[in-house]
């Protein structure tokens, strides 16, 4: 081992894709896509047995929204509201916050 200091490495950015367990045996997949204009948009698919039952795309630059009214956690892409188990909702929210923070660092 040499006594030379090693350069610090930056943490890898969060993956632009996450899959969480939905209600009723479904899987909810969310991707953050980058448009040619450099803005981001969200794609969400709800799967049951490897079949995509619902798919939606958010507007260019529109944020992913999180609601937790009356103990009913949900994520919103445009006008599509998807209820999730609380643990999946917290995982998705934490992931989206990390992506937003990474985007802010990249833009600076």
Measured between the Cα atoms of the first and last residue, the distance is 37 Å
> From the structure provided, what is the oligomeric state, counting identical versus distinct chains?
single chain
Strand content: 35-45%
Coarse morphology: globular
Question: Any low-confidence stretches, pLDDT <50, length ≥5?
Answer: none
- What order do the SSEs take from the amino end to the carboxyl end, as H and E? EEEEEEEH
Q: Give the rounded overall mean pLDDT.
A: 82
The major sheet is characterized as:
4 strands, antiparallel
The assigned structural class equals: alpha+beta
Helix content: 10-25%
Number of helices: 1
The counted number of beta strands is 7
Taking all Cα atoms into account, the compactness measure Rg is 17 Å
Q: Give the neighbour order of strands across the main sheet.
A: 1-2-3-4
């Amino acid at each position: 081992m040499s006594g030379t200091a090693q350069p610090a490495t930056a943490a890898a950015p969060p993956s632009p894709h996450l899959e969480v367990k939905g209600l009723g045996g479904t899987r909810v997949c969310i991707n953050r896509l980058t448009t040619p204009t450099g803005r981001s948009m969200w794609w969400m698919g709800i799967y049951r047995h490897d079949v995509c039952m619902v798919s939606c795309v958010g507007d260019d630059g529109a944020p992913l929204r999180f609601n937790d009214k009356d103990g009913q956690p949900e994520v919103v892409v445009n006008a599509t509201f998807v209820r999730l188990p609380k643990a999946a909702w917290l995982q998705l929210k934490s992931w989206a916050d990390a992506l937003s923070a990474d985007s802010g660092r990249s833009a600076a």
